[in-house]
Amino acid sequence: MSGCRIVIDTCADLTPELAATLDVDILGFPYILDGEEFTDDIWTSITPKEFYDKLRAGAKASTSAVSLGTYLEFFEKCAVEGTPTVYLCFTSALSSSYNSACQAADQVRADHPDFELYVVDNALPSTCGAMLAMEAVRQRAAGLSARQLADWANEAKTYIHGYFSLDNLDALAAGGRIPPAAASLSSKLEIKPVLSFDLAGSLSLIGVNRGRKKALKALVKLFADNYAHDASLPVFVMGADAEKDCDWLEGAIRKELGNENVTILRSSVGPTIGSHVGPGMVAVAFWGNNRAEKISLTDRIANRVRGE
């Protein structure tokens, strides 16, 4: 074990193999498929094709938060082991798990006052969370302490961009994210939305397009407009059983000026996130300009109200 333990959860969609290589621990989120509960293990017990074909066939998928008890048990083990621990938790804007993790951390710290434990709201869905964790590993190797790493993560997360398009809005409607009528109208009109997330980690609509190809081209433009052009940092292309569209998106990104040799990693959206976006999602994630410097006027007002 290195200077500190880095922990993520399966909402980051980091494969167990890569997590083991990087010395990162993963906590599994629960999901329910046709009434049966499973623990998301990032495609260890089911393949993406199997999972998304079930959804296409009409299977109902939902998720639930990680329980307080699960966090207590895991953090207690970390405390007994004694290595300072940083948990980069799935965004609190989309799950109550962060609040449970904070409650558990408070209790464990009370029982083990000398144990360093930091819970960071990553405010990042899916592979964007994996990107934060991967770079955190590099910073750990460079000598950052657990406290410094938590502070670094809170600053660095606003430089990560993620943009995605959905094949339809049915999964978001089923999860209560949007009205069912909006999903039905979108399907009839062949509207393909492009979404991202705000600084709190909530989903935000960037635009709508008539047809899949226009939506994919919109993702390329968003990449071109916001990419940091740092060859040391990888770009992720990920999908929910949409390999052909991911192939097209990767090729289009490489055609952008100066990106011919950029490192592009491919990722498959896991069951937890996949339950809410459905099959056919395509996304690009990368390090770019500071999103905190581009917030809207109304968000700036809200920040002043919060005293930030």
Record the strand order, biggest sheet. Answer: 10-9-8-13-11-12
Count the helices. How many? 12
Report the average pLDDT across residues: 90
Largest sheet: 6 strands, mixed
- First-last Cα distance: 36 Å
Beta-strand share of residues = 15-25%
Overall spatial form: globular
The helix/strand class is alpha/beta
The percent of residues in helical segments reads 40-55%
Q: What is the N-to-C succession of helices and strands?
A: EHEEEHEHEHEHHEHHEEHEHEHEH
Low-confidence stretches: 178-185
Rg computed from alpha carbons, rounded to a whole number of angstroms = 19 Å
What is the number of beta strands?
13
Describe the structure.
Helix 3 runs parallel beside helix 4, helix 5 crosses helix 6 and helix 9 packs across helix 10. The chain is of the alpha/beta class and 308 residues long. Strands 10-9-8-13-11-12 form a six-stranded mixed sheet, with helices on both faces. Strands 2-1-6-7 form a four-stranded parallel sheet, sandwiched between helices. It has a three-stranded antiparallel sheet with strand order 4-3-5, covered by helices on one side. 42% of the residues lie in helices and 22% in strands. It contains twelve helices and 13 strands. About 3% of the residues have low confidence. Helix 10 links the parallel strand 11 and strand 12.
